[in-house]
Specification:
283 residues, alpha/beta, Rossmann fold, eight-stranded mixed beta sheet, AB_hydrolase_fold
Length: 283
């Protein structure tokens, strides 16, 4: 599996930069995120030996947004702008991503979940809804299994629970290649170690080689209201894997976002945010 991800991050770059076609469907595009709105508060939290960038927007019941692998918090700009009208929205850069630092500790979803819980502790947020995309959804599932008392609801989009849930076809997907290229550019712009993108990718690839690896029995222990979400054209996660997740997590709601891919929050910001609000605000 590590070979798959190493190849994905480095070899697939040859597909990027080809430009958008006039005949592209929405799910084939990769729009740029809008600028982030002004934050109520932002800074760095010292957690588990790293400095973790975070920002807070709006007021109300809290919702934590966790981005995907190689990304950063600013991908949520459109969701933050809308959600912060009625909610206290917390975003952060996961360890090693964006503006957050990393150390020599091996990456693991349990460690990354611990980072976010420590951040919530420092922000004095005892319980929150969580919206996670890709790796962020996996982190959310880890928290739901091991610390359900910290969550009100979980909206997990484009997540997988075993490594064989990843579609090998992602290796030749141009949209995913463009995302990887953009992520490298963003890393150079945001990171305190802008020349270490390859080292960062190598470090996180060790995690992707074997994680996640949860059993049906582990997933069946999730008790919080959960939405398992995917775009109808997700490039990276097999549809049958998404359906399996929804079938084994007790009471999980399966949501398929139309005309959207792994990057649904960018392709259909309004529809994505409405889907989130409909779920987290439902009584």
């Amino acid at each position: 599996m590590r070979a798959l991800w190493i190849a994905l991050v480095f070899a697939v770059l040859s597909l990027a930069g080809t430009g958008a076609s006039l005949t592209e469907e929405r799910w084939q595009t990769l729009p740029q995120p809008a600028p982030m709105p002004p934050a109520n508060e932002s800074g760095y939290a010292k957690v588990n030996g790293i400095e973790m960038y975070y920002a807070i927007y709006g007021q109300g019941e809290p919702v934590l947004l966790i981005h995907g692998g190689l990304g950063h918090a600013d991908i949520w700009s459109s969701q933050v702008a809308e959600l912060s009208k009625t909610h206290k929205v917390i975003v952060a850069d996961s360890r090693g991503h964006g503006r957050s630092t990393r150390n020599d500790q091996p990456f693991g979803y349990d460690l990354m979940a611990s980072d976010y819980l420590a951040l919530l502790d420092q922000l004095k947020i005892q319980k929150t809804a969580l919206v996670g995309w890709s790796d962020g959804g996996i982190i959310g599932l880890d928290i739901a299994m091991n610390h359900p008392e910290r969550l009100t609801k979980l909206y997990a989009q484009a997540a997988n629970v075993t490594t064989d849930g990843v579609d090998p076809g992602v290796l030749t997907n141009k949209t995913f290649a463009a995302y990887i290229e953009r992520s490298g550019e963003d890393y150079k712009r945001l990171s305190r170690t802008p020349d270490q993108y390859d080292a960062f990718v190598g470090q996180i690839s060790h995690m992707w080689e074997s994680q996640p690896s949860w059993t049906k029995e582990q997933l069946e222990k999730i008790t919080i209201p959960t939405a398992i979400v995917a775009g109808d054209h997700d490039e990276a996660i097999k549809r049958e894997h998404t359906e399996y997740m929804a079938s084994v997590i007790p009471g999980a709601k399966l949501i398929i976002l139309p005309n959207a891919s792994h990057f649904a929050m960018l392709q259909d910001p309004a529809g994505y945010t409405k889907s989130v609000l409909d779920f987290i605000d439902a009584k």
